[in-house]
Specification:
globular, alpha/beta, eight-stranded mixed β-sheet
Amino acid sequence: MVLTPEQRRRYARQNQVSEFGPKGQVKLLKSSALVVGCGALGSLVAVQLAAAGVGRIGIADYDTVDISNLQRQLFFTEADCGKRKSSLILKAIEERNHETMVEEHQLLVTEKVARRIFPSYDVVIDGSDNPATKAMTSSVCDELGIPCVIGGVEALSGMILTQLGEPALDGHSLGEPALDGHNATWASLFPADDTSQSFSPCSFTGVLGPVPGVIASLQSLEAIKILAGIGEPLASRLLIFDGLSSTFREVQL
C-alpha cells in the first residue's frame, strides 16, 4: 500500500516522527480497533484513533447523552441530550476523516457479545465506566489472545494497563516475559466480583473533566503503538496518574 497525496498531507505531522513514519501510517490504515464505551474515555479515544488514520473503528455503546456528561465528554453538546452517544461519535468521526470505516454497535457489551465481536478487531480499547465490564473485557481478550488497553478514572486519579495477546503483532517480540500473551491482566488485579479497589462509576465518586482526557489520550497512544508496531506498550506495567500532584507512578506486575 502506498499513501495517496491526500493521505501524505493529512498525516504529514505524525509521519515526520521517525519512530512512526509512513510505514507506521500504512499499518494504521490497514488496522482496526474496537472502542467499548462512548463516555469520557471512549469518545475521545474513538475520535483520536480516527484522526490518526486507523482504517476501521467499532463503537460499542448503548447509552444516551445526559447534561451531566458535558463537563468531560467534549464531543457532545446541549442539543445532543437524549441522543445515542455511539451515533454522535460516528458522525464526529465521519466529519473528521471520511476514509475511516465506522461500525456502530448499539448494545450492552456482555460476555456473549464480546466473544462475538471482539475477534474481528486488531485491538480493543475499554473506556467503560463500570468495573464488571472492564474485568470482562480483560478476561475475554486474554482468553482470545486479543490485545486490549484498559483505563479507569475516578475523582482526580486514573490508571491504564495494556494486555498483549498472541500471536505477536508486527514490531513486537512477545516472547519476552514482560510482553508475552500471559502478561498481567486487568481482571487479575481487579476481579469482577471484587470492586473494592477498582474504579467506581463517576456518578458515585465524581471526576474532574481533564482527568479522563489524560487517560484517554494515553489509551489512544497505546493502541497506536500496538497497531503500528512501535515502542514499548504498558504490558505488565500499571500506570497510575495522580491529578492532584500531577505525577505518574508505574507499578511492575
